[in-house]
Fold:
Amino acid sequence: MRTAVAYARVSTADQAEGYSLRAQDAVNDRCAAKHGGRVVERFLDDVSAKQGDRLTESFDRRPGWQSLLRHLRANPARRGGPDLVVFKDYSRFSRHVAAAWAMLHELQRLGVEVQAAEQPVDWESPEHVHVVSAYLAVPDADNRRRSKNIRRGVRQAHLEGRWVHAPPTGYRATYSVPEGKNKPRRTGIEPDPTLAPLVAKAFLLAADPSVPVNAARKRVVRPNGRPLFGSAYRFGQALRNRAYRGELRVPPGDGQPERWIEGRHEPVVDAQTWAAVQARLDGPKAKPNGREKKLKLTPELPLRGHILDPRTGDRLTGSGSKSRHGYRVWYYHGKGRGAFRVKAEAAHAALVEFYRELSPTPGFLAVLEAVCEEELASRADGASIELANAETELAAAERRQLDADLAVVDGRLGPDAYARVAEHNRSAVDRARARAQAARLASADDVDADLEAFRYALPLLSDLAGLWEASGAEGRHALVGSTFPRGLSVDHGQIVEPSLGPLFSALAVAKTPKMETADPEGSADFPGSGDAGTVWGDARSTPRLHPSAILRR
Structure:
């Protein structure tokens, strides 16, 4: 008599509590007896057989089937182990044609025959390929049809503004019991009383330009002390999630493209804060997902990231090595054997000497302050004009949306056309609000704050060498980055061909010695011209740096 193992499966744990598994066991016993066998082991599963991304994923995630395979491999048929696997029908075995054939070949390799009680197959006949394929195609097609219907139902729920997926952080699911039913049904989402205020706080912090985006994430924690968003990536995704402003994504389908519509759920973030966050994330210095790469600074190597190889222009790294006398010597150097290197002590000494030579005159600082005031005032005027334009654009978009609403009420605009118009208007409103928020950030109050900060920093230019000596590693690193935005090279104790930032270029021009050149009329194209000659220097051979370039970023 042959030895058989039986396999039974239901889709959910609730079905396992009914009669299905016991009924399958009885059918499997009769099938084994029909093929001259006796069931010695039974394996059960209460999980779906739906296929995943990988070919055999539906089998891999079934613990009962995996136990069956381990049993067959531990007791091979050639040594008297089971040589027959029975189940009710092929929908219990698999609901994916390709995955099922792959598993059938694996069982054939183990010397095991497969038989379904309600769908017998003569494996000796070559036509069994057609028969088995037909058996497998029915549950596969049924799965595909169900998936399509589910996607269509989800899309229709979205079109009606109802959230059907897992709630985003800060929301919780809502339920109701339909009339005549006992089981509650999902109806949507609502703000979580505990977490929603934390999400709103995270957005407010992210909208503040003085707070780094990732620092905003770390400042908002759950009641249990854990961060509200576990990673910078998740926080960046949340800051882009339009569900927080009360919208809902309608996936593409039925020939219609993807779009966002107004959902039934209550927004957690107001429109102004949302626009401010988007304006910041879309800014020129925005980092992907709010993450900022930090350079590790060593107090002995503050130029790391700025200092270059004078021969190749490659950025140098740095490290310390122990001398024969036991103390550590620090170097900036390239990578590999024979790479350029320079003592950190020599590079720092050359930089201090360079800063000593850049000390400006009091007259230069006075003119620089006047130029700064003029430039910042011009920025404030430009921000006011930009704000007015953005508000005009916002009003126009809101007016177009109101016209669309009235057209729907009057019956002049159908649902599909209205959805497209509403999506276009929402995008226009978002852009206008982001422009307005960016303009407000450059308002007169912010200009006054910038001017106050500039006046505080202006005296520091009088003693750049002293500022270097008094600063820590981060301060020195920032000072060098402002002085040499493209980096600097040090060779034989000298800074080689420095490329200075705008402000420090002005300092260098002011310190250039007087040279003989033909400009008796005092042309305005040269720094020594007119009344400004005593401030900007007498280097008539050097083109004058326009004042607005000093503050250019």
